[in-house]
């Protein structure tokens, strides 16, 4: 029998074509492809209408109920923090989610005895899985995605104590960016604790399918723009969930400055989320802004290859929610797009300002506008240089390479410590 890797996450698509981020699902699919000597099972919260068990992208998924009747399960999707902000009564479901996840991990571990339990995010997964793994003597590993560590830091006394307790028992941990790793290291002050953490910590981003994207030539871009009804506009693309940390409200302010100097500029906002209605109201009457909703597959690839510039206006939200390293940025780099991003996006760890992209301060509409105008007016040789640099960066984040690195650090050292 193959050793089992149990992956536990709270952001997992609920059905084919779901608008939720799919990077955890894609990661597990890439792990399966690279290392078929293991079995993989993805455990996630349930939602009314979703299958309790199914296979998506070749990955086996099991979903646990955390509230009855199941139609009351409103906490986990599309994301826990925004749901709590909008509906404070959902705090009543928080202990139910923790308890149900703990029970599900215990039940699965007793029946299938995983070689390793792999959590994404400190809460709820790190807490529930950490407790279960400790009780059962199974190695526990974790990936932190930035916002989870920041939110725990803001919980007086309890949050930092919980993170330190979990981290001390982790067999291995990855952070999606250097800044995220720094947030985790900030929970520890003693040199001995930092040395312990650093011996188990590695910075590894999520990946993307670089082979599925390639930069468009000038004629190809014009043909795509024409087919999508974008020509002859100068097209800037935003791609991501419409949440507070994405900073799209700042982007709308900045783009008004862009169109005052470049009237033919067009901003495409691709994505869904709780901020969409407010953002559409803010953009009402702006002829240079289009909301195109959630996109995936071929349509997403077409938009990436039709755009002239990609923009990532991320901010640190009021509740501490923040980016780690957005997968959409990696996709844009794979498409060879000049990328304009803020210093709160994680892009500053990949991009050299003015060489492979443009980095500006968060919440600065004027600086964001100037950078977009600069990117839109690159000469042919300048654009080719930026495109080449972007593609080189993306190739380092191709899923096969990233999944292999995750496997080496998080899974391989613990495979045969537990008999199957």
How would you sum up this structure, described in words?
With 420 residues, the chain is an alpha/beta fold. The protein folds into two domains: 4-207 and 399-414, 3-Layer(aba) Sandwich (Rossmann fold), CATH 3.40.50.2000; 210-395, 3-Layer(aba) Sandwich (Rossmann fold). Helix content is 43%, strand content 16%. It has helices at residues 23-34, 80-86, 94-112, 122-136, 147-153, 158-169, 178-185, 191-200, 218-227, 248-261, 276-282, 297-306, 327-334, 365-376, 380-395, 399-411; strands at residues 4-8, 39-45, 53-56, 59-64, 116-120, 140-144, 172-175, 201-203, 234-239, 265-270, 289-293, 309-312, 339-342, 358-360. The strands form two sheets. The protein has an eight-stranded mixed β-sheet with strand order 3-4-2-1-5-6-7-8, sandwiched between helices. Strands 11-10-9-12-13-14 form a six-stranded parallel β-sheet, sandwiched between helices. Helix 1 crosses helix 16 and helix 10 crosses helix 14 (365-376). The protein is globular.
Strand order of the largest sheet: 3-4-2-1-5-6-7-8
CATH fold field value of the largest domain:
Rossmann fold
Average pLDDT confidence is: 93
Number of domains: 2
CATH class of the largest domain: Alpha Beta
Uncertain spans: none
Gross CATH architecture of the largest domain: 3-Layer(aba) Sandwich
């Amino acid at each position: 029998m193959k050793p089992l890797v149990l992956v536990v996450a709270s952001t997992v698509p609920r059905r084919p074509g779901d608008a939720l981020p799919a990077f955890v699902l894609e990661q597990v699919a890439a792990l399966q492809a690279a290392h078929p000597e293991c079995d993989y099972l993805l455990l996630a919260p349930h939602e009314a209408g979703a299958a309790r068990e199914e296979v998506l992208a070749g990955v086996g998924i099991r979903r646990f109920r955390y509230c009855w009747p199941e139609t009351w399960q409103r906490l986990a999707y599309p994301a826990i923090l925004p749901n709590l902000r909008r509906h404070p009564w959902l705090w009543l479901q928080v202990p139910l989610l923790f308890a149900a996840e703990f029970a599900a991990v215990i039940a699965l571990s007793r029946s299938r005895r995983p070689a390793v339990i792999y959590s994404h995010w400190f809460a709820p997964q790190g807490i529930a899985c950490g407790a279960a793994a400790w009780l059962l003597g199974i190695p526990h590993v974790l990936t932190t995605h930035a916002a989870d560590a920041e939110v725990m830091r803001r919980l007086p006394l309890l949050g930092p104590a919980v993170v330190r307790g979990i981290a001390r028992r982790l067999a291995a941990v990855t952070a999606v960016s250097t800044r995220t790793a720094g947030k985790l290291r900030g929970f520890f002050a003693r040199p001995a604790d930092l040395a312990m953490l650093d011996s188990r910590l590695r910075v590894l981003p999520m990946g993307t399918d670089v082979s599925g994207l390639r930069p468009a030539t000038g004629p190809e871009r014009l043909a795509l723009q024409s087919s999508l009804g974008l020509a002859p506009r100068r097209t800037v693309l935003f791609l991501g969930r419409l949440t507070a940390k994405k900073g799209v409200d700042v982007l709308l302010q900045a783009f008004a400055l862009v169109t005052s100097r470049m009237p033919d500029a067009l901003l495409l906002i691709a994505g869904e989320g709780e901020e969409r209605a407010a953002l559409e109201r803010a953009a009402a009457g702006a002829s240079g802004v289009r909301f195109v909703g959630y996109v995936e597959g071929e349509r997403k690839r077409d938009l990436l290859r039709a755009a002239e510039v990609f923009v990532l206006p991320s901010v640190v939200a009021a509740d501490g929610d923040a980016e780690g390293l957005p997968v959409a940025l990696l996709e844009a780099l794979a498409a060879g797009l000049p990328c304009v991003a803020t210093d709160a996006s994680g892009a500053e760890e990949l991009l050299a300002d003015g060489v492979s992209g443009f980095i500006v301060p968060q919440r600065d509409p004027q600086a964001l506008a100037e950078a977009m105008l600069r990117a839109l007016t690159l000469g042919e040789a300048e654009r080719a240089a930026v495109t080449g640099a972007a593609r080189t960066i993306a190739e380092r984040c191709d899923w096969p390479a990233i999944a292999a690195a995750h496997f080496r650090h998080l899974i391989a050292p613990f495979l045969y410590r537990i008999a199957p």
